[in-house]
Amino acid sequence: MEQRRLGVPLQHLTGEAPFRHEVLAVGPGVFIPRPETELLAGWAIEQVRTVSDPTVVELCAGSGAISLAIATETAGCRQWAVELSDDALPYLHENLRGTCVDVVHGDMAEALRELDGQVDVVVANPPYIPLEAWESVPAEVRDYDPHMALFSGDDGLDAVRVLKGVAARLLRPGGEVGIEHAEVQHEQIVTLLAAGGTFDRVTDHRDLAGRWRYLTARRTKVSP
Ligand SMILES: C[S@@+](CC[C@H](N)C(=O)[O-])C[C@H]1O[C@@H](n2cnc3c(N)ncnc32)[C@H](O)[C@@H]1O
């Protein structure tokens, strides 16, 4: 209780975080999965279920919450989870042990080039908080979730700009990408994904609180 009073997240004290039907191992060094991300995972699961023998990639995997949900809620598939952080990696390995998911340690920008043009679903909850919003982020988040998991450039969209290019090369024509984002990024992220013609059916979705929460788009046949 004293630790909680000082602001240590409950999940760091118990070492666990629930996500959909699973409980993940978490602790210092890895982002604590949030309930709002369950919606993005649910969207990915629905997409995966529409494809026979699906190939799925999660970028910015953290604890592996989304990948674990997909692996346990769909019938076997080819799946990869990509994470850059050395500190998050042990949690990712532990949470995905015994599943069909292959863990890739590295920068999403260069990851999985051998799968270019073959992936059915790309899903990501990237860092998306603007650096300038530092002061407004609650101390419990700022002091305990890894900075690499939270902040992404002046407008918070640096990682999404990279992610757009990675999804464009990984996805087969007609493949789908889903990306979580902040409510205030609604217009910017729709404009960003729609620009250039590599994606169509660009659609933003609200969470259960009515806030814009994740964007989905379909890979077109136009070269990136
Ligand atoms: C907001 S957390 C999301 C974690 C997990 N997917 C979830 O929803 O709980 C973002 C994650 O992206 C990782 N990350 C940041 N930049 C990355 C990059 N360039 N390549 C791969 N992973 C990256 C961070 O280390 C962090 O684990």
TrEMBL record:
Domain Methyltransferase: 56-142
GO biological process: methylation
Protein name per UniProt: Ubiquitin-conjugating enzyme E2 28-like
Keywords assigned: Methyltransferase, S-adenosyl-L-methionine, Transferase
MF terms (GO), sorted A to Z: nucleic acid binding; protein methyltransferase activity
InterPro entries tied to this protein: DNA_methylase_N6_adenine_CS, HemK-like, Methyltransf_25, N5-glutamine_MTase, RF_methyltr_PrmC, SAM-dependent_MTases_sf
Native source organism of the sequence: Platysternon megacephalum (big-headed turtle)
Stored SUPFAM superfamilies: S-adenosyl-L-methionine-dependent methyltransferases
